[in-house]
Design brief:
395 residues; mainly alpha; two-stranded parallel ribbon; 20 helices
C-alpha cells in the first residue's frame, strides 16, 4: 500500500497547470493521464510502461519522466535492502532527467526532495482504514469521478480527523471543477489541522490566486515555506507572484562540491569535486572553502563519535560554514585567490549580516534541522517574509 506522502505527490500534477515547460503535448497527455490512473491503482509496472509511451510521444515533456521517478520511489518503499536502494537510485536519476527538461516540474522536485532529505516531514501517519479510503478516492479522482472521489476523501477524514491530506484531496476535487471558494475552504481546513502541511498551504494559495486574492495567496505561500522550506514548488509559486509584482527572486543555486561519507571501514572520507582535487585548487578560492567546510564536518563528527555523542546536524552545518569562511578570509589576507561562486558569495554576505543561520534554514533546509527551525520561527514570527523581502533569495 502506498504511503500518504507518496500518494500526495500525484496531486502536484493537478495544481501544476500553467507551467508550460512541464506539460505534455496532445499526443502524450492522454497517455500520461492513463499512467497516473494506473499509478493510483498500484499497477506500477503498467504505469511505467504507459509513462514511457508518453515520453516517446513527447520527448521534451518532463511530466512522463517525473511520473516514472514517482513510481520508482513508491516501489522502493515496498522493497528492502539492495533492491530498495537500487530503485531509489533509479528514481533519483530519472527525476534529475525530468528536471533537466523542466526545472519547475513540481512532481520531480518533490520526488527528489523525498529521496534526498535525511528525515521525513513530521506529518500525521493515517490509520490503515483512512489510507485505504484515500487510495480508493485517488483512483476515482484520476478517473475524473469527482463526486465519488470526494465521498471517499470525506470518509478518510471521518475515519482519521488528524489526517490533513484528506482535506487537501477533498479540496482538490473542488479545485479540479474550478469551484474556488469550496476548494479554499477545504485547503484552509487542512492547514488548520496540520500547519506543517506545506502542500496544503501551496494549494490554498492556488485557490486564493484564482479568486484574485493576491495578498492572501502570498501569505499562504510564506506559510507554506515556513512549514517546509525545501518544497521547491512553493518557492516557484512565490517567485512567480513576486516577479509579476516587479520583485523577482534570485535562486541561490548552491551546488555542493564536497561531501563527507563513511567508508567500508567506518572512517570519515572527504569526497571533493574533481576540479578541486589538486593542491593548488584545493588551497585557494572556492576549493579552499569547500575543503575547509568538509574538513570541519569530519573533525566535528569524529569528536562526537569518539565521545559517543550524537551529531547535531544543524550546529555542525553552521559551524562548518563559519570555519570555511574564516579559512577563505585567511587565504585572501595572505594574497591568495578569493571565492567566485555567486552562491558562496551570497553565503558570505549573509554571514556578515548575521543571517547565516536563517539563510541556511530557508535555502538549504533539511528535516533533521526541524527543532532549530521551529525555535527560530518562534523567535522570529515573520522571519520568512522579512528574509525574502531583504535578500530576494530563494533555493
Amino acid at each position: 500500500m502506498k504511503t500518504g506522502y507518496a500518494v500526495s505527490l500525484l496531486l502536484a500534477l493537478v495544481c501544476a497547470a500553467g507551467q508550460a515547460s512541464v506539460l505534455p503535448n496532445q499526443a502524450a497527455a492522454p497517455l500520461q493521464q492513463e499512467a497516473v490512473v494506473l499509478t493510483a491503482q498500484g499497477k506500477y509496472k503498467d504505469a511505467i510502461a504507459k509513462f514511457q509511451e508518453a515520453a516517446k510521444a513527447d520527448p521534451a515533456a518532463s511530466g512522463p519522466l517525473a511520473g516514472i521517478a514517482n513510481v520508482l520511489m513508491m516501489a522502493s518503499l515496498q522493497a528492502q535492502g539492495e533492491a530498495a536502494a537500487r530503485l531509489r537510485g533509479q528514481a533519483e536519476s530519472v527525476a534529475r532527467q525530468a528536471l533537466a527538461l523542466g526545472a519547475d516540474d513540481p512532481l520531480a522536485q518533490e520526488v527528489l526532495r523525498h529521496l534526498l532529505d535525511d528525515k521525513p516531514a513530521p506529518l500525521h501517519v493515517p490509520t490503515p482504514a483512512a489510507a485505504k479510503a484515500m487510495q480508493e478516492g485517488e483512483v476515482l479522482f484520476h478517473a475524473k469521478q469527482y463526486d465519488e472521489a470526494l465521498a471517499k476523501y470525506q470518509e478518510a477524514a471521518r475515519l482519521d480527523p488528524q489526517y490533513s491530506a484528506a482535506e487537501v484531496y477533498a479540496g482538490d476535487c473542488y479545485f479540479a471543477q474550478k469551484k474556488w471558494p469550496e476548494s479554499e475552504e477545504r485547503f484552509r481546513k487542512a492547514t488548520e489541522i496540520e500547519p506543517l502541511n506545506g502542500q496544503a498551504w501551496r494549494f490554498l494559495a492556488d485557490a486564493l490566486s484564482w479568486q484574485g486574492k493576491w495578498p492572501a495567496a502570498e501569505t499562504a505561500l510564506f506559510n507554506g515555506i515556513a512549514a517546509q522550506p525545501n518544497q521547491l514548488p512553493t518557492w516557484d509559486k512565490l517567485a512567480s507572484l513576486r516577479g509579476k509584482q516587479g520583485y523577482p527572486l534570485t535562486a541561490l543555486h548552491l551546488q555542493r562540491k564536497s561531501f563527507v561519507k563513511l567508508d567500508a571501514n567506518g572512517k570519515f572520507v572527504i569526497n571533493l569535486d574533481e576540479q578541486y582535487r589538486d593542491d593548488k585548487a584545493r588551497l585557494a578560492g572556492d576549493g579552499a572553502m569547500w575543503f575547509a567546510y568538509a574538513a570541519f564536518e569530519v573533525d566535528a563528527r569524529l569528536k562526537n563519535q569518539q565521545a559517543n555523542v550524537a551529531d547535531q546536524p544543524f550546529a555542525i552545518e553552521v559551524a562548518a560554514w563559519r570555519s570555511a569562511l574564516k579559512v577563505v578570509d585567511e587565504v585572501v589576507a595572505n594574497g591568495g585567490d578569493d571565492i567566485h561562486d555567486p552562491a558562496l558569495l551570497n553565503l558570505r554576505m549573509l554571514a556578515r549580516d548575521g543571517q547565516l543561520e536563517a539563510g541556511l534554514m530557508l535555502l538549504q533546509y533539511r528535516e533533521s534541522w526541524r527543532a532549530e527551525f521551529e525555535a527560530w520561527k518562534k523567535a522570529h514570527p515573520d522571519g520568512v517574509r522579512k528574509f525574502v523581502n531583504t535578500y530576494a533569495l530563494r533555493p
